[in-house]
């Protein structure tokens, strides 16, 4: 699996010019707040339209300004995990997990619910409502829901930022399991060096809307 982005775009007065490639595994987009990291994810997800460029995942073109291609977000098969879990509060954990999965054609499914539930250690939570879960439990459910739509690419926008240190330590092993088990590119936004050092194989430095460096995390 491979991911390629070469785009220019704007968000208000902020200009982005970003180009890099990523393979299967976890690539960290690392830089200070306001550097443009989330805007990069939003362009990939189809929330923010680039002014120029191309975005492709494993040969599938999501956006190409020259060819006039701009797939709708729901057509891109991109999973997106935010700082807050954004679970549906009125339905069970099980129904949250399976919400997108049930709507997928069989032909594109690769994630198996029982396997992902075991991988993330959320089997005991299935009949509960999101409001009864800890922040770390909610994020694990959100990760499971995103993977169960069998995305070509997973975007994680500072998924640990809203958690205290003990909850961060609780959830990091599950992100490591996911990284090692699901063979798709994962783009992980953070400004925390400890997360980069523990989770990432490759680091893309982002500063002032530009790629400042790219290379192995080690």
Question: Can you walk through the features of this model?
Answer:
Helices cover 27% and strands 31% of the residues. It is of the alpha/beta class and 218 residues long. The chain has one domain (2-216): Rossmann fold. The strands form 2 sheets. Strands 7-8-9-3-10-11 form a 6-stranded mixed β-sheet, sandwiched between helices. It has a 5-stranded antiparallel β-sheet with strand order 2-1-4-5-6, covered by helices on one side. The protein is globular and about 45 Å long. The mean pLDDT is 94.
Return the structural class: alpha/beta
Mind summarizing the main beta sheet?
A: 6 strands, mixed
CATH topology: Rossmann fold
**What general outline do the C-alpha atoms trace?**
globular
Q: Topology as H/E string?
A: EEEHEEEEHHHEHEHEE
């Amino acid at each position: 699996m491979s991911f390629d982005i070469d785009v220019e775009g704007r968000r208000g007065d902020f200009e982005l010019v970003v180009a890099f490639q990523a393979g299967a595994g976890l690539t960290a987009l690392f830089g200070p707040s306001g550097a443009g990291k989330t805007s990069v994810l939003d362009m990939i997800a189809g929330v923010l339209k680039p002014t120029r460029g191309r975005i492709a995942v494993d040969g599938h073109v999501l956006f190409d300004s020259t060819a006039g291609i701009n797939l709708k977000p729901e057509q891109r098969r991109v999973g997106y995990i935010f700082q807050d879990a954004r679970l549906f509060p009125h339905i069970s954990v099980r129904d949250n997990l399976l919400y997108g999965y049930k709507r997928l054609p069989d032909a594109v499914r690769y994630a198996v619910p029982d396997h992902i539930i075991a991988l993330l250690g959320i089997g005991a939570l299935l009949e509960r409502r999101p409001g009864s879960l800890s922040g770390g439990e909610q994020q694990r459910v959100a990760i499971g829901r995103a993977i169960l739509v069998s995305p070509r690419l997973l975007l994680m926008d500072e998924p640990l930022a809203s958690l205290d240190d003990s909850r961060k330590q609780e959830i990091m092993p599950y992100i490591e399991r996911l990284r090692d088990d699901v063979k798709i590119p994962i783009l992980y936004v953070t400004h925390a060096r400890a997360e980069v050092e523990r989770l990432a194989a490759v680091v893309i430095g982002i500063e002032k809307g530009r790629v400042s460096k790219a290379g192995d995390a080690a």
